[in-house]
Amino acid sequence: MNAKVSKAVILNKGTVSWFSKGSLHTHELPSLLNRGFLEFQIDALRSNDINEIHLVMVESDNGHEYDNTGLGLIVHRQNEFKGTAGAILPLKEALSNEPFIILNASTFVSEYKLNLILNEFEACGADWGGTFAVFESPCELQYSETIKVSKDSTIEGIYRSHRSQNRRSNTGLAGLYLLSPRCFEFIPENTFFDLKEQLLPLLINQGLHIRAHYLDDGCSVLTTGAYLRMQFRLLRESLEVNNSQIDWIQSATPELNGEPKIVGNVVFGNHCTVAKGVTIIGPVLFGNHCSIAENATIVGPTVIGNDCVFAANSWVQASVLHDAVHVGEHAQVRHCLLGVGHQVAAADTRNCLDALIDTSPEPQDQTMVNHEMPQTFHHYDMLANAYSIAKYQMKKRIFDILLASTLLALSFPAWLLIAIAIRLDSKGSIFYAQKRCGIHGKEFPMLKFRTMQQNAHQMQDALRDKLNEVDS
After folding, report:
1. What gap in Å lies between CA 99 and CA 96, rounded to an integer?
2. Do β-strands 261-263 and 279-281 pair in parallel, antiparallel, or remain unpaired?
3. What number is the average pLDDT over the span 8-27?
4. Can you tell me the distance from the alpha carbon of 378 to that of 338, in angstroms, rounded to the nearest whole number?
5. Residues 6+ apart with CB under 8 A from 117
6. What is the distance between the alpha carbons of residues 243 and 228, in angstroms, rounded to a whole number?
7. How far, in Å, CA of 8 to CA of 189, rounded?
8. What does pTM read for this prediction?
9. Which of 228, 264, 310, 343 makes an SS bond possible with 326, Cβ 3.0 to 4.6 Å?
10. How confident is the model at residue 314 (pLDDT cuts 50, 70, 90)?
11. 10 Å Cβ neighbour count for 239?
């Protein structure tokens, strides 16, 4: 196709909190490497000559902060979010003359990956209706929606399956779409209309060719685990590989008191102070005005915001700290995401391990709040959940083995009598072995006392033939 792509729409689904599948409930757009997440998206778009960028937000969102930031966005405010497809209908006049990009505000895309999608689009035919970015994701939910993709990368539809049917992975939408302006013909007015559930089937039924473009790495930050993984991946790329797309990171010289031990790639912001006895092992990125007291230890990969304070003998490892976080003396923070302004109490080692901590207002959904935690701890994120589930499963396994062993020992005399009775009653083995289907479709070996004649399965055909003769 010869049409040029020069327009894009960034959608912030105002009804969905950031990290709603984790525990950080906030409508604030997240940051990456102490830089606005939205700025990464804008850079990727403009590097591919997409200069007309629309930002769609609902009235309850905090989009006003982007109106006058010099980002050059065209901001559209809507009273309510009407779905991924319904939200772009008011922009029909501005977008109806050429193909355009739709990008979810929670989706990260690099300049290179976006360029691949645009180059692929140029080779599409006249029946092209859109290109959807997809990715392979682990099947974590009991029921999951999977995009069905043919061998020639054509999207054939969407189906919902139980995870026992697909235990390895699902193909999901990445939140990046390149659409033909013909899509406006199928979007009804004044109603909620979803791109995946409603528009996609319509486009396919109309004979339009919808292509799938696979992204080979994480792209969504809606879950806390995904957000942390993306932070760490970009940190390594920027500090260890000198990625050109993140060359805006500049390291300042900190104020060193004594001789701290700094190993690996460590980048300091402006006006940072490091006391004697401090150990920092990269990759670590500091914001501005950070203070690290005596004998504190910071181990990467770690991203630290502005105005953070680390008291003496504190320990931080593999975490993301937003602005103005204070870590008390002898406190330990590992594998965590700490919200803006959070204060970790001195010697606190229980609440800051594998947890997500947020100081934002308490979410309305009280069913997801861990009431045993202090008020500033809302609930664990997916990392903490996995950690808790693993501990529970280990304890349950130990209990199951002990209980089964005890019952086996107590019932052994009865088992012995049953075995003798089977041996006296008929020839053949005492036990019958067979494979059975267990949870999630996983097979397991089953062993029980034989209750049928030996080789009963092999005798079924002969018995069936005999019964047929009697019937005739």
Report:
1. 8
2. parallel
3. 54
4. 11
5. 131, 133, 176, 178, 213
6. 19
7. 21
8. 0.66
9. 343
10. very high
11. 23
The residue behind tokens 């899509």 is 183
* Packed helices 111-122 and 37-47: angle between N→C axes, nearest 10 degrees: 40
Average pLDDT over residues 281-289: 91
Give yes or no for a contact between 213 and 169, defined as CB atoms under 8 angstroms apart.
no
Residue from 30, 26, 23, 31 nearest 384 by CA: 23
What are the residues facing 211 on neighbouring strands? 131, 154
Distances (CA, A) of 233 to 167, 186, 301, 312, 323: 26, 39, 9, 29, 20
What is the distance, to the nearest Å, from the Cα of residue 374 to the centroid of all Cα atoms in its chain? 26
pLDDT winner (highest mean) among 58-67, 183-192, 344-353:
183-192
Residue 96 confidence class, pLDDT cut points 50, 70, 90? confident
For residues 111 and 315, give the distance between their C-alpha atoms in angstroms, rounded to a whole number: 36
What are the tokens at 199?
């528009």
Q: Calculate ∠ Cα 248-251-255, nearest 5°.
A: 155
- Structure token pair of residue 422: 């089977």
Structure tokens that stand for 466 in this block: 């005999």
Distance CA 74, CA 131 (A): 24
The 10s digit of each residue's pLDDT in 336-350 is 888 788 888 877 665
| pLDDT at position 278 over 90 | yes
User: What are the structure tokens assigned to 125, written together?
Assistant: 């035919």
Top-ranked range on mean pLDDT: pick from 59-73, 278-292, 325-339:
278-292
Asked if the bond preceding 301 is cis, omega within 30° of 0, the reply is yes
pLDDT digits (tens, 9 = 90+) for 220-261: 666 667 778 888 888 887 776 554 445 556 678 899 888 899
